[in-house]
Specification:
The complex is a heterodimer of chains A (493) and B (143).
Chain A: H1 6-16, H2 19-37, H3 43-50, H4 59-76, H5 78-84, H6 93-104, H7 108-141, H8 146-163, H9 168-182, E1 185-186, E2 193-194, H10 208-226, H11 245-251, H12 253-268, H13 274-289, H14 300-323, H15 329-340, H16 349-352, H17 354-378, H18 390-409, H19 412-430, H20 435-458, H21 465-468, H22 470-492
Antiparallel strand pairs in A: 1-2
Helix pairs in contact in A: 1-17, 2-3, 2-4, 2-17, 3-4, 3-10, 3-15, 4-14, 4-15, 4-17, 5-6, 5-7, 6-7, 6-14, 7-12, 7-14, 7-17, 8-9, 8-20, 8-22, 9-20, 10-18, 10-19, 10-20, 12-13, 12-14, 13-14, 18-19
Chain B: H1 3-23, H2 37-55, H3 62-69, H4 72-87, H5 93-107, H6 113-134
The chains are: A mainly alpha (493), B mainly alpha (143).
Chain lengths: 493, 143
């Protein structure tokens, strides 16, 4: 498969130039910054809340809103990580090590500026890699049968369960519960009713968007309410000049490139995400710079994780756009947004919608440029976001959860579903069950089931077919190795 | 009791219950795998994983988990959220949202009269206008 054609690229440029589309990118970046910077609220929660709003928008506007939110959400978590040592999202935890040390020594402005520029570099490089790599993978994906789809979906699911915080077994239980939720409704193969409890609203299954709002936003509101209040003061910043950044980036140019490649390739693997990417990059920075001050507040400690975690955004879109399989929780929500627009991502997406693919790439680049401009422009005012007290923020999020749940289909049942699943999610969270595997289980469960059944039926119920086809066998082998490593890590903990 | 042991046992029980429920799913007499196949497979996985969790529990006690779950603020906010969500289709959005915001803010520690007077009204009308006229969503209203 060739690269994106120039005509598709030109058509995408024209669509992007629409002031309405650019306006939605600004809105997405602004909202994403609020979600990313608020500890406890994540880019996933923001994208989940914003997705129902895209019903009334066209494809361009909805992608502008959601991708802007996605990129800004991953970046903005570094702000509280640097200022108050509280990562806005797990993917920014590595940034807090050196970032907070810099802020503590009066260099918060420098640390935030490095975070902004590194996030921009990571996002843009990953979009460039996506442009080159995605068409190749899409070509490969056309060769996939049910056997490969089953093992790949299972691989993604187990990856999320294995790398989630806490115990491996609990991650797997969450994934199984998510898949069981995914079986509610009409059986996709035989057409029989399953677990509908006699409710006609459940015949079409548990809707993804109410479930996402429930498991991420409602659960987090309650978890925040249950947590003891902590009063942490925001450090004062010493201002820097932007030209001071130039020699730092000249010195660390290879670190930026390496971190972007690490972030993108980590994002391509289903179930990984920014947390793993940022720590791998941080480790690589420690190995390559051999700076003994790493961890005490040096620029490399901010550049590496921030470049990597934003580079994940482009990488995670590769399996979504080429295989229809979300690589992380945010892309799982984005899959819902695609379906709202009547677009089914998969092997044929790039063949039949080359202009839309090019548009997505351009929106990614535009969102990252906006992050750079806004981030550098507002970096001295950004701490104000943290001053919105939880006593106001949490009820507002509650209102948006209910309204967003209702807006999905103008149905009160969806609001009830958000409430019930949200409470269930909170109870599971209290007992240490991670939410990401549950959501990925809900998304991938039907894909796993249909492809497992189709693969077995097509191969005369012979389960060895999963071992005799090379891609499937390789994925299963990787899965076993991953489980062994995760089990050892989990046992050691 | 360890929290993981309790949840492990609960998971095994849930797996058995779901397995029995899966057996009630109607099936077609046709070649291939029935509609029961996948839910049964998952029920078995839950039973196995629950057993592992119960046999190899972590250090945390069930009391710690319950303390987090039953923290006063969390329980009251959960009750308030549930009431707001369940009454959502029946109560005027602006009234319900104003009341929810006011009570939730008070519950979470807001005591300033100006804040309590201004924020709930601003949020209820702001969100209403955003959804009604920005996203053209018809929210439940009395008038």
């Amino acid at each position: 498969m060739d690269l994106i054609s120039l005509s598709d690229l030109a058509a995408a440029f024209v669509r992007l130039a629409d002031p309405l589309v650019l306006g939605w990118i600004v809105v997405g970046v602004a909202v994403g910054a609020v979600f990313g910077a608020s500890p406890g609220l994540t880019a996933t929660a923001g994208v989940a809340l914003a997705t129902p709003l895209t019903f009334g928008l066209g494809f361009e506007a909805s992608m502008a809103l959601l991708l802007g939110l996605y990129c800004a959400g991953y970046f903005a978590g570094s702000i509280p990580a640097i200022l108050v040592n509280t990562p806005g999202a797990p993917g920014n935890a590595a940034t807090s090590v050196d970032g907070y040390a810099m802020a503590h020594s009066g260099r918060a402005d420098l640390a935030i500026s490095l975070s902004v520029v590194s996030s921009f570099a990571g996002g843009v490089i990953s979009a460039a890699i996506l442009m080159v790599f995605a068409p190749v993978l899409a070509g490969l994906a056309l060769e996939f049968t049910s056997v490969e789809y089953f093992t790949l979906a299972l691989f993604g699911l187990i990856c999320v369960a294995a790398v989630s915080r806490g115990s491996l077994v609990k991650g797997m239980i969450s994934a199984a519960l998510g898949m069981l939720l995914g079986t509610v409704g009409i059986d996709p193969v035989g057409g029989m009713m399953r677990f509908t409890l006699g409710l006609p609203e459940l015949q079409s299954g548990v809707s993804l968007l109410p479930a996402l709002i429930a498991f991420f936003a409602v659960t987090e509101i309650l978890a925040q309410a249950a947590a003891p209040a902590t009063g942490v003061a925001v450090s004062r910043q010493q201002p820097i000049r932007l030209r001071d950044l130039v020699p730092i980036y000249v010195r660390h140019k290879w670190l930026v490139l390496k971190s972007a490649v690490i972030g993108t390739s980590t994002g391509i693997l289903p179930g990984t995400g920014p947390t793993i990417a940022s720590w791998i990059s941080y480790g690589e920075a420690a190995r390559s710079t051999r700076d003994e001050r790493l961890g005490e507040g040096v620029p490399a400690g901010v550049i590496a994780p921030e470049t990597a975690n934003n580079a994940v955004t482009g990488g995670a879109l590769v399996p979504l756009l080429t295989l229809g399989i979300p690589g992380d929780t945010v892309t799982a929500v984005l899959l819902g947004a695609f379906l709202i627009q009547g677009i089914d991502p998969g092997p044929f997406f790039m063949v039949t919608n080359g202009d839309l693919f090019a548009l997505i790439l351009l929106i990614l680049v535009a969102a990252n440029i906006l992050i750079l401009v806004l981030g550098l422009g507002l970096r001295r005012y950004l701490p104000a976001i943290l001053r919105v007290p939880p006593r106001i923020l949490l009820p507002i999020i509650g209102v948006l959860c209910a309204t967003g749940g209702f807006a999905i289909g103008n149905a009160s049942f969806d609001v009830t579903l958000v409430a019930v699943l949200g409470l269930a999610g909170f109870i599971l969270t209290c007992f240490g069950f991670p939410m990401p595997p549950l959501v990925i289980g809900l998304v991938l469960g039907p894909i796993v089931e249909v492809n497992l059944r189709n693969a077995l039926i097509a191969n005369q119920m012979d389960p060895t077919v999963f071992l005799t086809r090379p891609i499937s066998a390789a994925l299963l082998l990787a899965l076993v190795l991953l489980l062994v490593v995760a089990w050892r890590r989990s046992s050691a903990r | 009791m360890r929290a993981d042991r309790a949840t492990g046992i609960a998971t095994v029980a849930a797996g058995i219950g779901l397995g029995l429920a899966s057996l009630q799913i109607e099936t077609l007499v046709a070649p291939g795998l029935s509609a029961r196949f996948f839910p049964l497979l998952l029920s078995l996985a839950l039973i196995g994983l629950g057993a592992v969790l119960a046999i190899r529990p972590g250090e945390r006690t069930a009391g710690d988990a319950l303390r987090q779950m039953l923290a006063r603020r969390a329980v009251l906010l959960a009750g308030l959220l549930l009431l707001y969500f369940l009454s959502f289709p029946y109560v005027d959005f602006r009234v319900g949202t104003w009341l929810f915001m006011l009570l939730a803010m008070m519950l979470l520690g807001s005591r300033r009269p100006l804040e309590l007077a201004a924020v709930p009204i601003a949020v209820s009308f702001g969100v209403y206008f955003l959804f009604r006229y920005g996203f053209t969503v018809l929210l439940p209203v009395w008038i």
